[in-house]
Amino acid sequence: MNKMQAKKKDEEEEEREIPPELWQLIINQYKRQLAMTDIMKVSETVKLHEEKIKEKMPTDHIIHAQKPNAWVEETKKSGGCLLV
């Protein structure tokens, strides 16, 4: 008897039709998911490009504190000027 019930369930599942409204809903949800994954991929690539740009950006325009030059400091103390 269990075999008969299992066979009936299989036949019922095969015969069941999905209404067009449900198909449309499934398709729309799938399209939204694809769009979201595309957005995620784009944002990840943008972040990678920003990191690469930051790595390659020249730092020459940044003013760094210079170490005092010992020779210049000595001439300042003596008050004289060295002419060559």
Fold and architecture overview:
The structure is a single chain. By secondary structure, the chain is mainly α. The protein has a domain at 20-59. It is built from three helices and no strands. The chain has helices at 2-15, 20-56, 70-78. The chain is rod-shaped and about 110 Å long. It starts with a helix and ends in a 6-residue tail after the last helix.
Record keyword descriptors for this entry.
84 residues, mainly alpha, 3 helices, rod-shaped, Visual GTP-binding protein gamma subunit
List the SSEs and their pairings.
Layout: H1 2-15, H2 20-56, H3 70-78
Note the beta-strand portion: under 5%
Determine the fraction of residues in helical runs and give it as a percent range: over 70%
How would you classify the helix and strand content by structural class? mainly alpha
Kindly provide the radius of gyration, computed on alpha-carbon positions and rounded to a whole number of angstroms. 37 Å
- Tally the beta strands: 0
Mean pLDDT: 73
General form: rod-shaped
Rounded to the nearest angstrom, the distance between the terminal CA atoms is: 115 Å
State the oligomer. single chain
Helix count equals 3
Order of helices and strands: HHH
Largest sheet: none
- Low-pLDDT windows of residues: none
